[in-house]
Amino acid sequence: MTIISLLIDSPVSPMTSLLPLVFVIAVTAAKQGYEDILRYRTDNVVNSSPVTVIRDGKEAIIKSQDVIPGELIVVERDCDVPCDLVLLRSTDPHGKFFITTANLDGESNLKTLMVPRDLPTVDLPEMHKLGIIECESPTTDLYSFNGKIELKGGEGRVLPLSTENVLLRGSRVKNTECVIGCAVYTGMISKLQLNSRLTRNKNASSETYINRFLIVILVALIAIVTLLYFLKRYNELFVIPKLTYLGDATDSYSVKQFLQDYLSFLILFNYLIPISLYVTIELQRVIGSWFMEWDLELYENETDQPCVVNTSNLNEELGQINILFSDKTGTLTKNEMNFQQCSINGNKFLFKKTRLEDEETKALLDINKFSANQRVFFQALSICHTVQVASGSLEQADAGTAKREPVTAIKSGPPEMYSISDITEESHNASQQSELNVGHTIDNSVSAHPNGVNSTIISSDVNPLLVSDDGYGVERRKRPVVIKRSPNFARSNRMNNGAASDLNINQTDPNTVTNGVEPTTNFRPISLQFRRSTSEKDLQQSWEAPSGQAPGHRRAHSYGAPNAYLTNPVTASTPPAGVLFRSPSTTSRESYAAPTFTRQPTILVRAESQRRKNEIRDFIFTLDYQASSPDEKALVEACANLGMVYTGDDDETLRVRIVPPHMDYKRPFAKPREETFQRLHVLEFTSDRKRMSVIVRDTDGKKWIYTKGAESYVFPLCANSSAELVTKTDAHISDFARLGLRTLAIARRLISEEEYQDFLVELAQANSSLENRKQLSEECYAKIESNLDLLGATAVEDALQDDVADTLVSLQAAGIKIWVLTGDKVETALNIALSCGHIPPDAKKYFIMECKNREEMLLHLNALDREIIFGIGQECALLIDGKSLGVALAEASSEFRDVAVKCTAVLCCRLSPLQKSEVVSLIKSSNENYNTASIGDGANDVSMIQEAHVGIGIMGREGRQAARCADFAFAKFCMLKRLLLVHGHYHSVRLSLLVLYFFYKNIVFMGIMFLFQFHTLFSSSSVYDSLFLTLYNVIYTSLPILFIAISEKPYTEEKLMRTPQLYKKNTDNKQLHWPYFLMWVLFAIYHSVIIFYFAFCFFYYNNVLLNYGQTVAFSCFGTLLMWTVVVVVNLKLWLESMYLSFWYIFTIIISILGFVVTTVIYNVINLDYDTDIYWAYNNLLASLPVWLWIIVTCVACLVPDYTIRMLQRALNIKSFSIFPGKQRKLKMREKFESTYL
What we know:
Its cofactor is Mg(2+). The chain is α+β, with helices and mostly antiparallel strands. 40% of the residues lie in helices and 16% in strands.
C-alpha cells in the first residue's frame, strides 16, 4: 500500500502506511533474531564440546563438530559418546565395558559391550594402522550393526563386528575408566541423529483461526472497495451531471482514472486489516514467556533451574492440548529403586535401613538375629544377579575404611558429630524393641574384685558427642536434652584383637579407668520404662558409693558424662559385707531409684547406631554398584545395608562380606567374615521366561540354583514347597502390588552332580544347534529350573517423580488423554503406569503383543473396538509392544489410530525413538485435528518432542538434549500441571481477547469511514487526518490491549489448579470460533453507526458549537469522531477484561491522554501535514456541548454491553465477560469467575 500511495494521487499521506509497516517489521525481526540467538548458543554448547582424539600416537583435544569418520576417539568414564564408534580397546582386562543408553532407548540399566574377539593389542602410535573397518550404510535401527575389520600387518584375518562392539552416540560409558574406538558414523548420519526428526517451524493452531478471520476481512475489504467504486461511477454517470453547479462532467474515462479511483478506496480502507496485530501478538508472546520463566512455581531450587521458553510462538498452544505423549524413564519416574518389603517363609517384613521389622510382632531384627530362612533368603538376593562393582571402587572403599580412625583415638581435627534429630528414629525403634524383649535375661560376665565386689566390665569408649572440637580432650558440659525414655542396647561380646591387646587394667586401684576395652559379655536389652539422665554434678568419680548411701541405691549417674559408663574390673567372686548389688530393675520407680549399670549409655548407643548406618551407606556408595536392572541394584544394596555386602566378582567368584552390627567405635568392616561362591551359569532373563537364575557352587562343593522372577512363572516351579507357603506368599505379593510395588518371587534348590552334568550336555547340544537354538536353550533352562523351594518374595518401589500421580490425574480430569511411549519392557512399564495413576486401577486392560501381520492386528483392533462400544462407561487401557506397533504403523495405521484414541490410556513399550515420533505423527494426521504435546528428558525423546505440536523437555540427569530441542523446558514433571492448567489457560484466553479486539477496533475505525463516503458522493476522501490514521493502532489503542493480553486472569491460579475441568473451556480454540467473532463484529458495526450518526446529527442540526459563536470546520468533525472512537474502544476493552489493576486503568488513561496530547500539539503547530486542523481541537475542548455529546455517545455505545452482561448474570449464563459491579476494586485480583461464551 505504501508503494501504491506513492504512485497515485493518494487520499492520505504515504507515511500513514510506511511508518506502521516499518515498526511491525522491526519488532518482528528483533523477536525472531533474539530467539535464533538463544538457539545458536545452545547448539554451540554441543558442537563445541571437547573430544579427545589420538593423532600421531598422541592425544589431542578437538571440537565435537570436527570429528570425522576414521578418528580414534578416547571416551572416559561417565562421559557421553560424541559419535558412533567401533570399540578397539578398553581398560578392562577382559575387554568388557559397560554403558547406559538412557538417551537412546530410555533405559538407564547397564549394558555390556566388548572389544572384538581376537583383536590384537598394539601401541597407540600403531593403532591407526591396525586395519580397515567396513560397515553397512547408516540405518535408524539402534539394535543392528553389521561390519568387519580387515587386519593388516601380516595378520590377514577378518574379524566380524556386531552390536556388542559398537558404541552409539548418546550412550554413556560406565564402570570403565577409558575406552578407545574408531568413529564410523558422525554428525547427521549417526544413529541417534537419524532417529531424530528435522527441526521444523511450529505454528500455533490459533493462527489457523486468525488466518480465517483475515481472509474474511480481506474479502470484506475487496467487497467494500468494489462497492464504493461502482457507487462512485454511478454517481459520476447519473448524479453529478444533474448537479449543474459542479459544471460539465467529463466524458472521457481512462484506465488510469479507474486505477486512481479503485486504488484510492483500497488505500483508504486498508486499515481494516490489522497489520499491527502481528507485532502485538509477538510482543505478547515474548513478554508472556518471560512471565513463565519468572514463575517461582516453575523454578527448581535444588538445581537453580528456572523454566526455559525456547519457542514463545506456542504459548497459547499450551491451553489447547488434547493428547499428551510422555516418556517414562526419568520423566514419570526417577529411575531409583528402593527396597521396601519382603515375604520370607510366609512372614512379612518391612525394610528399616539396616534391619527388618516383623509386621506382626514389630520386632526389629539385624543380621545377628536372622533365622536360617532369613539368612538363606538374603543370601539368594546377594548372589542371584549380574550386578557389577565398578572397577577400583572396592579398593577405594577399603582404603577409606583403613583411613578412618576409631573415635577413641586422639584426632587433630573435629570428630564426626551426630545430631539428636539424626538418631530420633533409632531411639524410637529401639524403644519399641526394648518393649518386645522384657523376658530376655542378661548374661553378665563377672570378674572378681580384690575387695570382693562383683562388677560387670563395660567399655569406656569416649562418647563422640562429648569430644571437644580440638580433639585433644573431653569437654564436660551439661546435656541440653533430657531423655526420659531410652532404648536398651548392649555391646557385642566379641573383643577386637587390637582392642584386647590395649587392655590395661589396674587390679589394685578401684578408681582406675579402663580405656579401650570392649565388652566381653553379650548383654541383651531389657525393658526400661523410665530413665533420667542428670548432669555431671551428680557423678561420682569413684566406684564407691557416697558416704551414708548404700551402693545399691545410688542416684542414677548421667550417661552423658564420660565417667558415667566407666567401671572398674574386680577379681573377687563375692561381694564384701555391707555391699548390696542389685539385679536389673524392671519397674519405673525401681529403675529411677536404683538403676542397673549393665546397659550401654543411651545417647552413646544411638550415636553408634547412626554412625554405623552412615558408614554402611558410605561404603555402599563407594562400591558403586552397576546393574543391568535397577531392581537388581536395589536388592543388592538392601542386602548390603542389612550386613551381606556383595563386593564383586573375580573370575566368576562371587564374594559376600558378612558385616555384623558391631556396637563399638571400630569400623564395622575392619575384620568381616567373607563368603565366596563360584558362579557357574547365568540363565538370563527373557520376556518369555520372565525370570533369571544363577547356578553357583559354595565352599563345600555343593551346587545350588537360585531363581527370581515374576510370581506367576516361579510359583509353578516350586513343587517342593507347601501349598500353604505358596498361598501366603501370593497373598503378600498381592498386598505389595496394591501398594504399587514391583514384586519378584525367590526360590532355590540343591542340584546333584549327575543332574548338573546332564544339564551341561543338553545345553551344549542346544547351543550347537543351527535351528531353534533359542527354544532348545530355554527348554534346557526350564528343566533345571524345576522342583524349587520357595524362599519368599521382594517388594521394590520405583520412586516416582514428585507429585506425578496428582499431575496425571489432574491432566486426565482436564480432558487430556495421556499416552506413555517408552523403550522399557511391558512388565516394567505396566507396573509404573498403574502406580503413577496413568492407567486407572479399575480400567480394563487390553494387550496387543507379538503381532506379525495385518490380519492379526485387525483382529485385535476389532475386538478392542467392540469392547469399547459395548462397555459404555468402562475405562479401557491399551498396551502394545514395539513389534506390534511396527505392524500397526506400516499396515493398519488409520485403524489403529481410530481405535487407540478412544482408549482412556495408551501404553506403548519397547519403542525406538523413531517409532515414538511416528506415533505422534499418526495422531496428528487424524481428521479430529488433535493438538498434541510430547514430554521427555533424554535424547531418545527428541524426535517425538520435535514432532508434536508442543515439545516439552525435562532437564534430567541424563543430559539436556531434550530440553535444548524442546519448546518449553523445566526441571520436574509435576510442573507440567501448572504450565498447562494455569499458563496454558491464561495465554489461550489472552490471545483470543487480543485477536478479537483488534478486529473489533479496526472495524469501528473503518466503519465510520465507510459511512462517511455515502455523504460525500463517494469521493474517496478521508474523514480522519493522516496523523490519526498513523497513530490509531500504534499509540491510541495499543497499550491497554497489550497490557491486558499479558495480565488477564479469568480465574485465580489456585482455582485453576484445584479445578482442572476449567481447562476444557478453552480447548479447541473455542473462544476463536465464528460465534465469538461475529459477536464482536456486530458490536463494532453498532458502535461505528452510533458514533457517526450521533456526530452527523449533532453537526447537521446545529454546527455553531464554538464558544465564540462561529461554526465548526470540517476538521473539527473528523477530530471529534476520532476522539470518540478512542474513548469508546478503550472503554469497551475495560468492560471485556476480567482482571483489573491500577496499572491497567493507568494504560487506558495514558492512551486517551495520548490522543489528547498529540492532537493538541499537532493542532497548535501550523504544519501542513495532510489537512488543516489548526486550533480545531482546542476549540472542541473549550466547548461544553462537545463534552456533553461525548458522554451521551459513549453511554449509548456501551449500554448494550452492560445490559447483555447483566442479563447473563441474572440467568447465570457464562459469558465472554461480565461488566464489573460495585465489588470490583482497583487492585490486582480476580473480578468475576466467569468464562467466555
